[in-house]
Write a structure and sequence with these properties.
Two copies of one chain form a homodimer. Chain A is an alpha+beta fold. Helix content of chain A is 34%, strand content 32%. In chain A, strand 4 and strand 5 form a beta hairpin. The termini of chain A are far apart. Strand 3 of chain A pairs antiparallel with strand 3 of chain B, so a sheet runs across the interface.
């Protein structure tokens, strides 16, 4: 039995590029589940901070009727890897030439400094030009401190960031890059 | 000029026991702010996990019209102290003789095991009989593993827990106890 070419092709691409087109948050959540299931790391996305205004009670529990989103003062993801505290923020931009700094709140920038002071691992994961880079917190702060620019040029990620390769499982193996940068390449 | 006794008394008690009657979450949040301001530790309560069903847009931003509370699978507080990952759950009970175990979700119990496996510091902070105890995660798991009881007797906290003294600033200096248990008493 023969299948038309296009069906075979479609099936192949589903297997090989199942995560293509998925947004950065989903890729990271899947990767974090992979790491947790295999007992590699415990890293979670923090719930979105929400201010709750009104609730009502039902037989199944409380239901929220009114709430609003709060500005985060820490980063999106944190957890525990190889006995170390790890925290990062994930952002994607459709800009081709640079990453606008308004994506990171001033409180979050202060927080990055504090995590470094307290000997934690802290970085950004930025998707730009369809590529995902890890940018170490200290390297990010160097940029902020040395320039008045409102955005980080793409070339800065290429030169000072670390490319995280997209693969099947986990879709974004960012801890491999963390091993290289923060643990001297040992895993 | 003389004030009636009861007014003087009231003023004194406001100064000395300003935090008396405050719930455990507030005491911990104030303590965590104290630790952060003095550059001692970075520990935060995680936002309550909420599933958002409906939102609408206003000139001031998104407003949530319907949402529900999700069951937490990690613990309420986590952060970074002296270069180490720290995570804990805080609960108060009005029961006088024991702490009911249904206060801690099965997912959270699994999570406590994992944090220990990954070399993090993990514990419970339990307010019972108007006293606040820190109970190490491993000691908590020993109880769970060795008994089929549905609650931890008060005496277990007295024997195996560590009393956290309430004071003025910070209202609950639990990191002093953390120093004793996890850092060999050095601070």
């Amino acid at each position: 039995m023969q299948y038309p070419n296009n069906i075979v092709k479609k099936k192949t691409s589903t297997v090989s590029y199942g995560n293509r087109g998925m947004d950065l948050e989903n890729l990271l959540n899947l990767s974090n589940s992979y790491y947790e299931e295999r007992n590699i790391a415990l890293i979670f996305k923090k719930p979105t901070p929400v201010g709750i205004v009104d609730v009502h009670y039902t037989t199944k529990g409380k239901v929220i009727d009114k709430a609003y989103f709060k500005a985060p003062s820490t980063l999106d993801y944190n957890g525990l890897y190889r006995g170390k505290y790890i925290e990062f923020e994930a952002k994607e931009t459709k800009m081709k030439t640079s990453f606008p700094l308004h994506n990171i709140h001033p409180h979050q920038i202060k927080h990055i400094r504090k995590v470094i002071d307290h000997d934690g691992i802290v970085f950004l994961v930025v998707k730009i030009q369809q590529l995902v880079y890890l940018l170490d917190g200290q390297v990010f702060l160097s940029f902020i401190d040395q320039t008045k620019r409102q955005s980080i040029p793409y070339s800065y990620f290429v030169e000072h960031g670390h490319l995280i390769k997209e693969k099947i499982d986990p879709p974004l193996d960012y801890l491999k890059v963390v091993d290289q940068i923060y643990f001297g390449g040992n895993s």
